[in-house]
Amino acid sequence: MKNKKLAAAMAAVHMYIRTQEEAAVVAMQNQAADAAAKHAPVGQMNLWGLSGRQAIMNANAMIRQRMLK
Hints:
Blueprint: H1 2-38, H2 47-64
């Protein structure tokens, strides 16, 4: 029973990561299409950097709200 729960949790995490990567690819394709229409350079989306910055901003917000003492 414990192995089934572990396998289900791992599958859920894998599916979440996969859907986020697919969403990032679609967003980058849309950005590339928009940039091609405007003749602007296309930047790459860094998912790990984006999530890291989000975590730092959340931590700073909790500190400002004095949740962490």
